[in-house]
Amino acid sequence: MNALSGYFTMNKIFLYIGLFGQLCFSMRFIIQWIYSEKAKKSVIPVAFWYFSLSGGIILLIYAVYHRDPVFIMGQAPGVFIYSRNIYLIHKNKKEEVSQNEGAKIEQVHSNSEYRLQKMTEEIELN
Questions:
Q1: Which of 16, 53, 55, 117 is the most exposed place for a label (fewest CB within 10 A)?
Q2: pLDDT, tens only, 16-68
Q3: CA distance 46 to 101
Q4: What are the tens digits of pLDDT across the range 96-113?
Q5: Distance, first Cα to last Cα, the chain
């Protein structure tokens, strides 16, 4: 049991946390590269922002543990920016869904008016 205790010191645990955060943060570039290659143009997918946010939060926690003001100042604004982008993406999707629903309702209403007009014409002809 003593042999394992060296792997679980607070410094080692936070080293592993920091490495995991850096892995998450780096994945955003790989994801962006894959999406861009598929699209044959530069694309920033939603997953890019989620990897940025998760990696940024984990790295911020790591920086706070080490009391590194330079690292904290580098990560803290990013966490806000990534969160804001995710919020805007979801807000715009909700607005698009709302607009699409409004268009569908308008289409149904228009079709209903057309059918009612045809039925009225048929009744008048009979």
A1: 117
A2: 999 999 999 999 999 999 999 999 999 999 999 999 999 999 999 999 999 99
A3: 23
A4: 766 666 656 666 666 666
A5: 95
Check residue 9 and give left, alpha or beta (phi > 0: left; psi -120 to 50: alpha): beta
Cα–Cα distance for residue pair 6/18, rounded to 1 Å: 18
Specify the residue for token string 């804001």.
84
CA distances from 25 to 2, 17, 51, 74, 106 (A): 34, 12, 6, 13, 44
3-state secondary structure 5-73: HHHHCHHHHHHHHHHHHHHHHHHHHHHHHHHHHHHCCCCCCHHHHHHHHHHHHHHHHHHHHCCCHHHHH
Tokens 């990897």: give the residue.
51
Q: Answer for the pair 60, 76: CB distance below 8 angstroms, yes or no.
A: yes
